[in-house]
Design goal:
The chain is α+β, with helices and mostly antiparallel strands. The protein contains 19 helices and 14 strands. The longest helix is centred in the N-terminal third of the chain and has 27 residues, at 22-48.
Length: 457
Amino acid sequence: MSESERSRANRRDLGDAIPQRRGARTARLASLPLGVAGRATLGLGRRMTGRSAADVQAELQAKTAEQLFTVLGSLKGGAMKLGQALSVFEAALPEESAAPYREALTKLQEAAPPMSAPAVRRVLDEQFGRRWPDRFQQFDEIPAAAASIGQVHHAVWSDGREVAVKLQYPGAGAALLADLSQLTRFARLFSRFSPGLDVKPLLAEIRERVLEELDYTQEADAQRAFAAGFADDPDIAAPRVVASAPKAIVTEWMTGTPLSKVIATGTQDERDRAGSLLALLHYSAPAKCELLHADPHPGNFRMLADGRLGVLDFGAVARLPGGYPESLGRLTRLAVEGDQNGAMARLRELGFIRPGIAIDPADVFDFLGPMVEPLREPTFTFSRQWMREQAARIVDPRRDEAKVARQLNLPPSYMLIHRVTLGTVGVLCQLEATAPFRSLAETWQPGFATTPDGASE
């Protein structure tokens, strides 16, 4: 089959699963604001007929959530990555707004329309050669999960091991670039789903990092590093890589309870256990692997039968040679200890306060105080209410904290660490878990277990 014939076959078999043409994808993305406007007009009409505003608003929110999932999920690519990123921040939404969106956004973490079986076979032909079936005892052509740029199949390797086979959608790269360009036009729309979230910097960060996920060889190397770093670990598990290619990865299969289910129905003990292990992963991975798992949404984690936290999907990682920057640990400790002079000097030294910016240290500490609250006591209970309070005080332009936030700078070298930390805290708040955040920081974060005068505790 010629290259042009193969390309036409790919498009035919994929159908609407991942629209390739820029115009088609733009039209679907444009349907989001148009759909919101149309439903708002419909809602006004229904209120005029006597229905209560609360009933109409609830119906509109539910329909908007359904459209969000349908459009972003079917487009996959950068559109779905944005949906996954937003799903982490739903804990910051007011409950009356969050409830209708929570289920739809959670679906984006693990579900999307799959590739057809012929398209799956063609991807395997291209990545592992036409004799790829010889490598498997069994291969299920129906995907076990479909996500933003690829889907996962359950299979049995030639040696009898259960494996997960992750395949990248044909055209995923073009889809990512098209989506990330078009979505910047609708940044204001997405603020409806997460009030106060500045989506444009989030999109820029996603664009900067998500293209790395297209190289499955690079992802396989990151997963090997995690699997080696946590080999025989009593608390964290990462499946080993069995085989890899530029657009396909075969790894050991991992069975467990999705973190989204723990969030939805878990007992408090189960939530606390999951939250403590997620916090442990966040703090210990840079020390063990010199990497930070940079996609902390519930779909990437499983609670295993033996009590460990299973970690999946290593396409997005932060590379931290030497582990967490010690300077960041020292800054955090200074903030926890209330050392205004030391912290302000460190903020300026690291670029969080740009030269020439005059700012009151007391205002900065009022701004930072609640953020370091989880590190003040041996344990901290995260909650949706706490997350909402933090979001409200930072984004309300009438509050001093919001004014301070606009004066502070986030250096590019710390941007991914900051985003991952916020994402992890967001999941902890969804879990409403009590976790030993301080002791984990003291054990694993360089510079934190040092008093302000430089001596170790």
